[in-house]
Amino acid sequence: MTNPRPNAAAETRRPSSVRVRAVDERVVSSADLTGKTALVTGATSGLGRATATALARRGARVVLGCRDVAAAEKVATAIRAETGVASDDLVVVGPRLDLASDDSVRSFAREFTSEHPRLHLLVNNAGTNFLKRAFTKSGVGVIAQINFLGPAALTRALEAPILAAAAEGREKGGAGAGANVVHVSSVTHRYASVASVPKFLRDWDVGSYAATKLANVMFAYEIARRWGKRGVASSAVDPGAVYSSLWNNDAFFSARPMKAILSFAYAPPEDGAVAVVMASLAPFARTGAAGGGSGEKEANGDRDRDRRRNGNRNRKTDAAAHDAAADADDDDDARTRFYARGLFASSFISALAPGGSPAEDGPGVAGALARAAWSVKFGLWGAGALACSLLDYPLRRLSGGRVASATREVPSSAMSYDAAIASELWDEAGKVAGVRGG
Ligand SMILES: NC(=O)c1ccc[n+]([C@@H]2O[C@H](COP(=O)([O-])OP(=O)(O)OC[C@H]3O[C@@H](n4cnc5c(N)ncnc54)[C@H](OP(=O)(O)O)[C@@H]3O)[C@@H](O)[C@H]2O)c1
Question: Do you know which PANTHER family this protein is assigned to (predicted)?
Fold first, then answer.
């Protein structure tokens, strides 16, 4: 199955400022969220539960946004016990949230806002895969609805408490963002394309899991573009390969031999959630400008190494120019961040990914050659990505965390910077949420 080529007229470019940066995990994990409200969707299991627990440990009031309220109550009780939070009010279950239902998303947002006038951190984590073909009342494929449209509409419907938290952060002064929105994406976004928003939402074959995870990144990009200057940070995360109930929906993955392989090779949710937690905390840990500061330091683009490479003659000028460019990046509130960890943050994964496949209806021989070249690239990269998914956690575990454990800010797929499609996704989400503009 191939997806059509992105609209040639659309702006598809990767900002030149996107470089690999290491996250200083000691600084980031010391962020204090006392007095801040965080909403984690899909917190009944897996990454959501692990993230909610980590945020409660950092002092946040954590609201669990779940469709199974009874299960969420049990999880809330367990998190309170695990973290020893002083007050029951600090880990609470929100109103029922079923991302498959527009009505549920709207009523959740209404009730949440009346209870919590400020939302400092939204973690759009809930997601699913391996669903049978089905559509919502409005004709949207359920996977596109649950993984993309529901979370995007939720974000837009929560605009008031998010922007209120951001404004409060600005009033209080200091650096960094006052609010933060995190989307849990996936490595699969690197071979997807969303060329037409109506097709993505309504054509089951186009709105695949991978496409929904690309749409998450594009929406994160749009949040940064629209709300970044107002004090809202935005990022998307590839959590790597995690052994969670996500795989239970598929007969192949839930067969006993595959379960044995996954439970050995894939990370447990607490380990897999590390990059999600880093993305959640990073804007609140920064002591420098909103875009960078102490929480992140350059990795591959390391300034000192570049200085050494520069000849003596140009050294001062080049280093100064480089520093100025890096500082300009750090000042860029509107920059989306994409975080990955371990082997998933390697340049093999980010730089060699095939991107979305060429058009099915590409012209003649040239089209056939482009498709064949894409298939070869996809096959090679896919085999490497599979190897990464089987080796990432075992390497980390066997090395006692010395190998494959760093979280990095890395470039997301080139298509994720498509401004025209991202803006359309924003509008679709606004329609569902019942809000305009933004
Ligand atoms: N596992 C991986 O290897 C992996 C890799 C990359 C990205 N991810 C992403 O990570 C996120 C979390 O997945 P996970 O691995 O932690 O899986 P998980 O344990 O199955 O958790 C998924 C969560 O989403 C919730 N959810 C599903 N449908 C929902 C709906 N209609 N409305 C509200 N909540 C809903 C589930 O709630 P219920 O308990 O009610 O079902 C559950 O709490 C997903 O977005 C997934 O795409 C996972």
Answer: DEHYDROGENASE, RETINOL DEHYDROGENASE
